[in-house]
Amino acid sequence: MRTSQVLIPTLREDPGEAEVVSHRLMLRAGMIRKVAAGIYTYLPLGLRVLKKIENIIREEMNRAGAQEILMPILSPAELWRETGRWEFYGKELLRCQDRHERDFCFGPTHEEVITDLFRREVNSYRQLPMNCYQIQTKFRDEIRPRFGLMRGREFIMKDAYSFDRDEESARVSYQKMYEAYERIFTRCGLNFRPVEADNGMIGGTMSHEFMVLAETGEETILYEEEGTYAANVERAEVLPPASPSTENPLPLETKHTPEMKTVLDVCQFLQVTPAKLVKTLLYQTREGEIVAVLVRGDHEGNDIKISRLLNTAAVTLADAETVTKATSAPVGFAGPVGLKGVKIVADHAIRAMKNFIVGGNAQDTHLLNANWDRDFTVDTFADLRQAQAGDPSPRSQAPLVAAKGIEVGHVFLLGTKYSQAMDATFLDDQGKDTLAIMGCYGIGVSRTAAASIEQGHDAKGMIWPVQIAPFHVHLLPVTNSEMVQETTKSLYHSFTDAGIEVLWDDRDERAGVKFNDADLIGAPYHVTIGDKGLKNGTIEIKHRRTGEVVKIEPSRVLAYMNEQLAQFQLPRV
């Protein structure tokens, strides 16, 4: 393509609305334009990247035995009410009514629709396993859409759903999708890690996230440097301490701590480390129960682990009024000793502690030398804290390493959560009605494009992997001389005939403008044609990722580019 014939409205300055690198560079390179908060139009360069990612996904999903379908964006409320998610999903579910005042929603995901299709069309175990996928626009009404394509309201997603006759075959389908995802993100040229994850609103019994490693990532993952264990920080397991404290119990002591409400305040006042203090966090379940959660002063509670232990959909920290009512003290002075009518659960680390500091359930008061087996009763000990770098791996005991990541894919083993709610059954080989075992598998297509930029960029612009770059080659003539223009035209046609995707900057612009735009757009190879080089019998080829410049004869340029591109498994376009 010629630049003069393509809509590429590049910007010289950084847009004020952009908060992250990918958002800023996609706007500057003319790949996207904002329509409303979290909603974007994809311009030609941006759409080319998305189509390449989609085609890689299609090739690998088809290779794994999945069938492509297309479900509607709108789905009727009746299906969502069957699973209880019409009410549970909350305001992120964008609801609307048709002219007959029937309720619909814009699908943020399609478990209900695909399960309804299954129960209508599949009758026998002979039709299983079944795995269907689609690539489609989704909508989630985020309360605060931000970061461009990283957290938009409207986005492009690949979602797949498997149905199997039993748990064993469902795990086979899950593994096929897991391996397909590894191939997809490898082919997209991304540095990524699969990590154990929580199932969240989707539900189910097992899940993994696929994280692109990037310093700008919103999520923290923990992993073994040498081993295979990896998990997001919400899911990462924390082992109980290897051995309890050997201290002898000391008498409980009341200490006046005026205005000392935070861990840091109390520790500085008493001249102790946070590891000697136990925080009492009062949580409220969705059902209204108040629970006291004990964690060490240098640890953080993990809401997801706490919710799982209490068998509730969600927990929130109790407000100040609730804390005062339960403890007779303002926030900052809650403690487990003498706490009445409230269940007490504690992180494993508390079991190993002796003579620790807790709130005194009275203003400006803490208790010293508290011991859980003497001064109060713990209903349950469990893994309730956020894992952190340096914690021993639950697999190998090696210290875990932290990294930032961007979630681009998620696979779930759902079990019978949806098939049971919607009575999605089939006749097994004994003629008995049996619930299908389900899995679901998502990839954020537009998010993958943004994550690639977050991982691959420099001060000048984007650095695309060859596999998903909008063009393989950016052709840059630096003068309008007849020799330069004829050579450029010849190269352009030879590239095009060879199936090499090329963007020819045919604008009447200064060389500096062309070079700046080429670096911004980030095609993997820049081919520069100038009078001086041609007189010396050479053309310059710059590798955008490394900055390496190769000077070769014009007659060898096509062969060189073919050699470079032959290293990659490129998607069909």
Shape: globular
**Low-confidence residue ranges:** none
Number of helices: 17
What is the CATH superfamily of the largest domain? Bira Bifunctional Protein, Domain 2
How many distinct folded domains? 3
How many β-strand runs? 31
Kindly state the mean pLDDT as a whole number? Answer: 94
Structural class: alpha+beta
Distance between the termini: 14 Å
CATH architecture of the largest domain: 2-Layer Sandwich
Brief account:
It contains 17 helices and 31 strands.
Helices and strands in order:
Elements: H1 21-28, E1 32-36, E2 39-42, H2 44-63, E3 67-68, E4 74-76, H3 77-83, H4 85-88, E5 95-97, E6 103-106, H5 111-121, E7 130-139, E8 154-164, H6 167-187, E9 192-196, E10 206-213, E11 219-223, E12 230-232, E13 253-256, H7 263-270, E14 278-285, E15 290-296, H8 303-310, E16 315-317, H9 320-327, E17 343-347, H10 348-351, E18 356-359, E19 365-370, H11 372-375, E20 380-382, E21 401-415, H12 417-421, E22 425-427, E23 433-435, E24 437-444, H13 445-455, E25 457-458, E26 461-462, E27 473-477, H14 482-497, E28 502-504, H15 511-521, E29 525-529, H16 531-535, E30 539-543, E31 549-552, H17 557-565
Parallel strand pairs: 3-7, 15-17, 17-20, 27-28, 27-29
Antiparallel strand pairs: 1-2, 4-6, 5-6, 7-8, 8-24, 9-10, 10-21, 11-12, 11-21, 13-19, 14-15, 14-16, 18-19, 21-24, 22-23, 25-26, 29-30, 30-31
Family: Belongs to the class-II aminoacyl-tRNA synthetase family. ProS type 1 subfamily.
InterPro entries: aa-tRNA-synt_IIb, aa-tRNA-synth_II, aa-tRNA-synth_II/BPL/LPL, Anticodon-bd, Anticodon-bd_dom_sf, Pro-tRNA-ligase_IIa, Pro-tRNA-synth_IIa_bac-type, Pro-tRNA-Synthase_IIa_type1
Catalytic activity: tRNA(Pro) + L-proline + ATP = L-prolyl-tRNA(Pro) + AMP + diphosphate
